[in-house]
Amino acid sequence: MRQEDDVIAEAEDLVSIRSTASSGERELVESLRDRFESSPVAFDIEIQGIDGEDPARQNIIARAGDPARGTLLLTGHLDVVPAVESDWSVPPFALTRSEDRLIGRGIADMKGSLASMLLAAEEYLSTAATPGEVILAFVAKEETGGDGTRELVRRGIDADAAILGEPTNLTIGRANKGAVRYDVVFEGESAHSGRPDRGINAISAVPDLLKELAAFDTDLDAYTHDLLCPASTVTVTELSAGTAPNIVPNQATVTFDWRFFPDMPTDPEWYDAQIRDIVDDLPHDDVAVSIDRWNFKPAAGIESGATIVSAIEAALGSVERDRRHTGFNAGTDAGYLVSAGIPTVLFGPGSIENEAHTVDESVSAEELRLSRDVYREAISWFFGNQDP
């Protein structure tokens, strides 16, 4: 008989190991490898480096069960955002219980989900007479662009469906926004500010770009989605220019973030073309301009009648939870999996908007326990409704 708080102890172990961008995931991967090797389930374990980069950045994949009965991928990211410890009321890398709340960096995003997935998979694989294949793929570098999941895809990960453990408050996340980010760089000519006529002020082009981006953002109101809000948006997020108060700046950079929906184009070059048209029409021939797209994360969506959605609905019913479908107004790794032909649903404890990345990040202990139960029942339902 399992202990009720096994999942909390599992999450505590994960939270206690720092896995920020600066520390990497390797220590956590090594701990998980030991955990899988000591499991009652005979997992096949693989550790992946991220395409020759920093050896501290690693994925870990554990699989068991019979792929002839189908394959279900349970996935999430190992890395967490940094924590300024002096801002926290408790140590961020030691799970703390306060009434029904569990506090610690990454407990919502998404080490709580990983703990629940691990235990749910073990319970299913240990008790099913003829289990289908369950793959636990815990990945690196999601917070800095999704390189871990891209590496999974590059190496040919294959599954009939996937659950990605993003914090959805145990609602069924059927869609998430994509994101593309740009720097537009204006190049002028520096001069002493006492003789500005001898220079070309790069900042002079910035107001016109801001005006055009604002108009374009209004045009994007035409793109809407029933689970996502608001409309597709372009948001200017950073401005930089100048080196000193008495020098005409020879460079100015505008950074902006474009959020889009699953039914919008999937080719990043379509987005490039829209931005290029805006920039080409700016009335500043004396200022050179370049466009740098430095991030593209595809949107993702799944049909309401997909088998994996039905599996989670059935599992939520078994624990008397609402089967509500929601959208996820942030980027995730789901788009990479969907692009590889793997229908993916977002589901996990905690809130992306209210709890992830916050000081004193937390989840409800009861919600964490329920997530383990829902994952376990969803796995069982999924394979019970697959063709033998």
Main attributes?
Alpha-Beta Plaits; Aminopeptidase; elongated; 388 residues; 6-stranded mixed β-sheet; alpha+beta
What is the strand and helix layout of this fold?
Layout lengths: L5 H10 L10 H12 L6 E6 L8 E7 L1 E12 L18 E3 L2 E3 L3 H21 L4 E8 L7 H8 L6 E4 L7 E5 L1 E10 L3 E2 L13 H14 L13 E9 L5 E2 L2 E10 L7 H13 L7 E10 L2 E2 L5 H12 L6 E4 L5 H6 L4 E3 L15 E3 H20 L4
Parallel strand pairs: 3-6, 3-7, 7-17, 8-16
Antiparallel strand pairs: 1-2, 2-6, 4-5, 5-18, 8-15, 9-13, 9-14, 10-12, 11-13
Helix pairs in contact: 1-3, 3-9, 7-9
Characterize the structure shown.
The chain has 388 residues and is of the alpha+beta class. The chain has two domains: 257 residues, Zn peptidases (Aminopeptidase, 3-Layer(aba) Sandwich), CATH 3.40.630; 119 residues, Alpha-Beta Plaits. Helices cover 30% and strands 27% of the residues. It has a six-stranded mixed sheet with strand order 1-2-6-3-7-17, with helices on both faces. Strands 11-13-9-14 form a four-stranded antiparallel sheet, covered by helices on one side. The chain is elongated. The two termini are 30 Å apart.
- What is the helix tally? 9
CATH topology assignment of the largest domain:
Aminopeptidase
The best one-word shape is elongated
Instruction: List segments where confidence is low: pLDDT < 50 over at least 5 consecutive residues.
Output: none
Largest sheet, spatial ordering of strands: 1-2-6-3-7-17
Mean pLDDT, all residues: 95
Distance between the termini: 30 Å
